[in-house]
């Protein structure tokens, strides 16, 4: 038996064991049973926010949505910080869920977003996709009711199509703009790769969705969003977010604060990470050909550039982890790379645990993964063909 087959077999066994645990964790959390993982005070909390935004629009209370205190009160149950931190484009995409009560809407939302991710990414690699579906990151997405399956499908689906169908790729990547912290480096990558048709389609899609939401919701709603975005970037809002969410945060900013740095120094570290992320994406898409390493650089950089990513967002990283592990199995692993992949796979829950202990190493592991992808990308010249299952 070759070493590659041994490595892939070990990976399959680990993913299967972790997957069984994740299924039991989700089942016991939803239907009652032993506590074998993080305890959820409220099930599907993020989806409840999404559904409440649709309900506010249907009830003629659109003005509440970007008023954090008023919208939190609208959701009831004594909640005090349940904001919508998305542009109006996201509400536009959510409107069909208004036809369902919240429980059924949640099931429809998760089924549709997982189906989109499967159609755009999973069908290319069924065994790898099965591992992603039962990964710790997926469990956090399901229990939180988040939209990361949709982000994953649009992200990888768009990158897959860049060479064959740049217009379709651009449309998918333009739809991804509903989540700015995930989308922010995409235009830069397209410019660096000189994918002008895809860039035009991306920006055109953003413009169409923005105009549609403007026509439906009105200018005042967009103005309220920009005001809320400015407020979210303020020191007071950032401190409030950190106090409430730092255990789940994956960012350099949060890690620096947990390590004892002042808010000012933490902000400087976040800016340094963002600069590194921007430079890495620029040179990767300028120098590397299509392949798993280039995509992995972009995925890792996304988590370094944004100060507002949480552990359920790590699902976006998992297809790239699968692809680079396969490359390592066939080409040979770098020292300690196997351990890095294992830690990355466990990171959504492991990071949550380590953050509680004051050991914020999540950004460091993502940085190491990005460096590994960069090193492998050196062998992918512009003429290289696709490999590893991801463009």
Describe the 3D structure.
This protein has 391 residues and is mainly α. The protein has one domain (41-377). Helices cover 69% and strands 0% of the residues. Residues 383-389 have low confidence and may be disordered.
Overview in brief:
This protein has one domain.
Rg, Å, rounded:
20 Å
- The coarse overall form would be globular
- Number of helical runs? 20
Q: Which range best describes the helical content: under 10%, 10-25%, 25-40%, 40-55%, 55-70% or over 70%?
A: 55-70%
Integer tally of domains:
1
DSSP strand content = under 5%
| Distance between the first and last residues' Cα | 29 Å
* Low-confidence regions: 383-389
Q: Mind summarizing the main beta sheet?
A: none
Helix-strand sequence: HHHHHHHHHHHHHHHHHHHH
């Amino acid at each position: 038996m070759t070493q590659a087959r041994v490595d892939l077999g070990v990976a399959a066994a680990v993913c299967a064991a972790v997957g069984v645990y994740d299924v039991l964790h989700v089942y016991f959390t939803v239907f009652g049973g032993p506590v074998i993982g993080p305890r959820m005070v409220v099930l599907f909390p993020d989806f409840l926010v999404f559904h409440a935004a649709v309900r506010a629009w249907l009830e003629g209370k659109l003005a509440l949505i970007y008023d954090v205190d008023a919208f939190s009160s609208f959701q009831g149950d004594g909640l005090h910080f349940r904001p919508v931190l998305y542009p109006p484009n996201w509400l536009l995409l959510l409107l069909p869920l208004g036809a369902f009560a919240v429980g059924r809407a949640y099931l429809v939302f998760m089924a549709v977003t997982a189906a989109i991710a499967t159609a755009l990414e999973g069908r290319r690699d069924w065994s790898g996709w099965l591992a992603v579906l039962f990964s710790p990151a997926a469990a956090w997405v399901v229990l939180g009711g988040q939209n990361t399956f949709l982000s994953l499908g649009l992200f990888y689906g768009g990158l897959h199509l860049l060479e064959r169908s740049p217009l379709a790729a651009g449309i998918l990547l333009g739809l991804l703009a509903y989540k700015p912290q995930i989308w922010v480096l995409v235009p830069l990558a397209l410019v660096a790769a000189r994918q002008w048709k895809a860039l035009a389609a991306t920006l055109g899609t953003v413009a169409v969705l923005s105009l549609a939401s403007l026509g439906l919701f009105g200018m005042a709603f967009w103005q309220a969003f920009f005001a809320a975005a400015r407020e979210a970037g303020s020191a007071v809002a950032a401190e409030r977010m950190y106090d409430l969410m730092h255990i789940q945060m994956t960012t350099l900013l949060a890690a620096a604060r947990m390590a004892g740095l002042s808010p000012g120094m933490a902000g400087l570290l976040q800016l340094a990470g963002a600069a590194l992320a921007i430079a890495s994406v620029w040179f990767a898409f300028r120098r590397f050909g299509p392949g798993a390493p280039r995509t992995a650089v972009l995925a890792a950089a996304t988590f370094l550039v944004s100060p507002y990513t949480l552990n359920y967002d790590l699902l976006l990283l998992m297809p790239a982890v699968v692809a680079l592990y396969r490359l390592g199995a066939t080409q040979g692993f770098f020292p300690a790379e196997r351990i890095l992949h294992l830690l990355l796979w466990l990171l959504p829950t492991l990071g949550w645990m380590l953050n509680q202990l004051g050991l914020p190493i999540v950004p460091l592991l993502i940085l190491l993964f990005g460096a590994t992808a960069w090193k492998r990308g050196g062998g992918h010249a512009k003429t290289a063909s696709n490999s590893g299952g991801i463009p």
